[in-house]
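#struct-queue
[09:14] JT: dropping the first one here, sequence first, then the structure tokens:
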Amino acid sequence: MSLTLYGAILSPFVRKIRIQLAEQNIEYELVNQTPFMQPDWYYEISPLGRIPAIKDGDLSLADSSVIAQYLQETRGGIRLYGSTPAEAARVRWLEKYADYELAKPATFAVFFNRVVHRLMGKPCDEAAVKTALQSDLPPLLDYLEAQLGDKRYFLGDQFSMADIAVCSQLINLAHAGELIDEETWPALSSLLSRITSRTSVSSLLPAEHRIVSTVNGASVAEG
């Protein structure tokens, strides 16, 4: 069956699925779809109009976590949800934490203001960025740092969707010009370096950087 992924490459949720597809050697077609002003036909695939969404033959699915689990269960390959029910539950919890908690300051506050708003010709709300960076983000990173501890990955030596989901948000933070402090969160900083060196991730980043660089160039020109 042919697999089609709909989404924008700077979305951390789309990136999460693209990393999984690469890790599991799944061929797919990427159709660019922004999270704004979606055409009517897109709502037949994603009822809430959100990205990512997929079509796999006659099946349509939306929501990155639903898609990720479906791909794991139907395509096999590398196990991204651990080897036991307890590990699977831990991965899904951390995936949810990244998607619903970490995303709020990292993507929807910092990244949206610094990158998306500028792409759309809107002003950057640096007050909102400051609040996210100084108040909202640190306790979330503290929790993830404690969960990671001295382990290589969140499941110890086993790479998982938890690592993908968390680092997808941290990549958006980096695109917005904010790297996490390696002295305050050394384990997370090392994890991010480790994940971005994987071919499944490093192969995606040049195209993302090209888009971000156009935003930065425009910002310099305006200044």
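[09:21] JT: and here's the second one, same format:
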Amino acid sequence: MAESGADDGSRSSDDVYRRAALFASGLLALHESPRLHELLAELADALTVPIAGICVLGHGHCWLPVAHGLASAPIAERDTFAVQVVETLTPIAFADLTTEPQHADGLLTRAPLNFRAYAAAPLRGVGGTAIGTVIAADTKPRPDFPARAIPALEDVAVRIMEEAGAPHHMRRIGRMALDGLEDLIRQATRDGDDALVSAIDKVMRDVLPRTGLRGV
């Protein structure tokens, strides 16, 4: 699934820093990871649902670099729960979205998605910064879903981030991660946001030893 090509320059400092944390996580380069697909398949099996996925935010959209049982184009942030989960760092779960007045006729409940039961938990990157969510969903109502889904999602979220940050993976994709961080630093410099420049530079210095590269 391709990411939107919009310019981060229109986004807030928090959004840009979250983008830096996403580059530093290594998650963006794991769309073909057998281990992540395995983790999502295990999550779907554990919750007996057809759909599980990793959702990240970028350029006003939510997109799925890794998914199980779902092929979807990027969705506008306003049509998802991802921003709410990322900003509050709080999992959510619904037994049936169609019984929720605010969500009954939302994009997620309509074709082709047709979600009914739905849950999401935050994925945490550098310094605990939320960089996206891990989700699980069913096309049927599930009265048991809120109680069952959140613990399972929180557990697999930790395992996903451990896999993304594994040394062998960071050494393989280190140059890409550092290039992305350097681009964000250049943008923040052009914008005159010194605090953001310093924050992203710290992220880059923290990531550098894990990449096996000598310098930038």
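[09:30] RK: nice, looked through the second one.
[09:31] RK: The chain has a mean pLDDT of 86.
[09:31] JT: good to know. Residues 167-190 form the longest helix (24 residues).
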